[in-house]
Amino acid sequence: MADRRSIAAEEADLERQVADEDFIISHPAPTATPVHNDPWGRPASPSPDHAPPSGGVPYAPEPPMRDIPSSAGGPVPAAVSRATARLLYTSHFLSTWNSRLFEFAAVLFLAALYPGTLLPVSAYALARCAAGVLLAAPVGSWIDSGDRLSVVRASIVGGRVAVVASCVVFWAMERRGSSVGKDGKDGLFALLVMAACVEKLCAMMNLVAVERDWVVVITEGNEDARQLLNARMRRIDLFCKLVGPLVISVIAVASTLAAVYTTLAMNVVSVLVEYFCIARVYKAVPNLRRSAEESSPAEPIELDTPAAAASLLRPQSRRRTLYSRTTSFLKQTAFRVLPLSSLPFYLRHRAFLPSLSLSLLYLTVLSFSGQMITYLVSVGYTSLHVGIARTVSTIFELSATWAAPRLMRRVGAVRGGIWSLSWQMIWLAAAVSWFFTDTEGGSVAAATGLAVGVALSRVGLWGFDLCAQCIVQDEVEFDHRGAFSTVEAALQNLFELLSYACTMIFSRPDQFRWPVAISVVAVYAAGGLYAAFVRRRRGHLFHAPPCSVCTKLEGHRQGTGALGRRW
């Protein structure tokens, strides 16, 4: 009897042990947070090198970017489905294609309508950039607080309506321009400028909402999927940047009106496809639906309301004079329109330096756009030569969308950014050195050396763009993505405006060396700012290879061998 009781007791103990093991397997204990980020991009692991000294302060590195809390409470997807990715690519391709095509087509149409002068084209481009600077704040606020689908749909419909209206005005100016007189033509041009500003804001809204918010939510918890999605969407952008202007310029050579009709037809047909595709993506990803808390205005940004911001800047005198009321109204309007309310948050954010570095790169004439192309033509390049140079440059740019994700997987986004910027700075230094050897100015050989160096530097530019975008996506809190990214977009438009101002001040081809010098200074300033960020984040800029002699001496000094083993 006693034996049976002892056997039963042993069986009960065994069952309890098995139950305990099952509980431990199904509920593993939380692992300790890694305290050492491997400089070669491998998974973080504890390191004896960072063990706190006796009586010292424990080593507490900055948490890795991927540890930022999820932006939604839904399940974390293992990967992005191919169907969802295809729908997102289709919508993004059509939006980018129409935007890039219209941006270039408008310049061609204005050049045909106003031959012999660059003033209308310059005023048109400056107004578009100014709209991006002045109205970035309300766009960012709506992206952060509005329904995600409504925001993107409004950007699609608003952009297409603005392009259609512009095409109608272009048609009227082409067919009836001589009969409306100078005042009528100026009025139609004003309508074109207003429509261009609307299209610019809608394009910026679509870009920020999709690339900086939707992509992060869709790939939440899957960094590899996000890097791949970023690279493919940037590849789409660069493809549209090359092929869109090429297609519309070929049509415009035959007939300006035919190019207007083509632009109009593309925008009318594509709007329904874009609308449908983005709705399917929204339906396929439940995390894109905002909760009530997400839709409420965010608190952490200081100076969040125009009244509060203006109150800090009011004159100390409390007299309600006409001057003080006017000043108060202007300050409130400035904080309502300009992205000033989000600026303190942007300046203090941990992603500020990468974002500002990326924005500084827009202060450049060293790209195959209007300013540099005009210079190349002035020194003797033909349209064929310019087309070949632009095509080669775009091929290099596209190659960055394949190279950058592999670089980030190998060394991480932070180190990938400093490597990419270094590549850009090296090739620009070589290009400018070759260019400035021509002391007289106007040499085709000097211009060719500049063009080759600029084309090679574009690999680093777009590689850094993808790395900085990945850092911003990881670092910025989900309820402030719109505010942060629209301040960044406003700065990019501001620096682009400054690049136009440079070529307006130094407008002669023999003065092009000064805008080139300013562009190089801006690139190196961006490199310095990003180097400061890398130094702050990692403790050093470049990882030095291990030195066996130094390791052996350090081991002897600490009483260990070269492999770190205690004697």
UniProtKB/TrEMBL annotation:
Matches recorded under InterPro entries: Ferroportin-1, MFS_trans_sf
UniProt subcellular location: Membrane
The keyword ATP-binding is assigned to this record: no
Annotated transmembrane regions: 101-119, 125-143, 155-173, 188-209, 238-258, 351-377, 416-436, 514-533
Keyword Transmembrane helix: yes
CDD domains referenced in this protein's UniProt entry, alphabetically: MFS_SLC40A1_like
Alphabetically ordered keywords of this record: Ion transport, Membrane, Transmembrane, Transmembrane helix, Transport
Membrane topology, as annotated: Multi-pass membrane protein
Biased composition (Basic and acidic residues): 1-19
Superkingdom, natural source: Eukaryota
GO molecular function, one term: iron ion transmembrane transporter activity
Region (Disordered), start-end ranges: 1-74
A GO cellular-component term linked to this record: membrane
UniProt main location, coarse: membrane
Record's function text: May be involved in iron transport and iron homeostasis.
PANTHER family in UniProt: SOLUTE CARRIER FAMILY 40 MEMBER
Stated family: Belongs to the ferroportin (FP) (TC 2.A.100) family. SLC40A subfamily.
Name under which the protein is recorded: Solute carrier family 40 member
Source organism of this protein record: Pleurostoma richardsiae
